[in-house]
Amino acid sequence: MFARLVRWRSVRLIGPRAIRSVARKARRPLRQLSLPAFVVAWVAGASIVHAAETQVSTAQVSGAKTDGTQATSVSGSGVTNSSGDHAVDSRLDQILASHRLRVCTTGDYKPYSFLRPDGQYEGIDIELAQSLAKSLGAKVEFVATTWPKLVDDFLARCDIAVGGVSTTLERQKRAAFSNAYMIDGKTPIARCDAVGRFQTLSDIDQPSVRVIVNPGGTNEKFAREHLMHAHIEVYPDNVTIFRQIADGKADVMVTDGSETRLQHKLNPALCPVNPDKPLQYGEKAILLPRGDVAFQAYVDQWLHLLRATGDFDKIVDAWLK
Asked: What secondary structure does DSSP assign to 198-219, as a single string?
């Protein structure tokens, strides 16, 4: 009976070489193997098959080549080649080693990032960056940037970029994003006595309407794409731009709903227009290096835990409620 089992064709599928090897070492014919010896060979054969399959699978995932040249792959701690050497460390490893987190931010976008006259930054994203740095045992080094140069400065000088950064496909082509931490959308803001004039995009897109925008960001992009008839004025200072509306020098601005709520809080003469029904869907996230799996996974997990513990809501509510 056992001899017929050994001759069974499917035995070949689970490691005939291992079975024959056990027989050779025991110096006994294959037919005379005891059942325990056969089981040992069976398990050994399955292990060999599993190891081979794993090796092939790993080669396929990492892009390994069969022509003798080395291939590169992204590992959990950085980019590696087929010999296992680390070609580039993860940004996570670099931050842990240097104990510094370089953060690009514009400092002109309340409630996310604002540079005070005393040279200190404040805002939702500033507190988030400080929390992330603390979790890494690092100190924050803020790097000033502008919206037109945000991605360029980030790639050249920073580990992350924050400050109410909207997720866009154009930015995604050159960098990566964390999981979104806030859903937001484009919302008009105008003097409260004029809100009724700007209920829809068509109401705003009139030759007589003066739309004011800050340069280089998603606000200007939205205005250029959706307002073909209104007069668009690019105003360079994103901090004092709302004063232009309050003083009657501009009629309306289309920006993120969270910013319109804060500006109404700071200046009750300005009112959001239908902030619960934004003109365009949007998300806020942290700008990260593209292709750094380990660092991105760390940031996403830190953000998840910040939400789960309620600390994230405490930071946001302090600014928006």
From this structure: -SSHHHHSSTT-EEEE-TTSHH
Structure token digits, residue 268 = 């009750």
Dist CA 233 CA 230 (whole Å): 10
Strands 100-105, 160-161: pairing is parallel
Give the dihedral sign, CA 188/192/194/200. Answer: positive
Q: DSSP per residue over 250-316, as a string?
A: -SEEEEEHHHHHHHHHH-TTEEESSTTS-SEEEEE--EE-TT-HHHHHHHHHHHHHHHHTTHHHHHH
Residue 193 and residue 270 in contact, taking contact as beta carbons nearer than 8 Å: no
Global pTM reads 0.66
pLDDT band at 321 (very low <50, low <70, confident <90, very high): confident
The Cα–Cα gap between 219 and 173 comes to 19
User: Is pLDDT of 60 > 70?
Assistant: no
Q: Is residue 108 classed exposed, middle or buried when 0-12, 13-18 and 19+ CB atoms within 10 A define those classes? A: buried
Q: How far apart are CA 3 and CA 7, in angstroms?
A: 6
Residues with Cβ < 8 Å from 65, sequence gap 6 or more? Answer: 71, 82
d(CA 22, CA 244): 87
Please tell me what DSSP assigns to residue 30: G
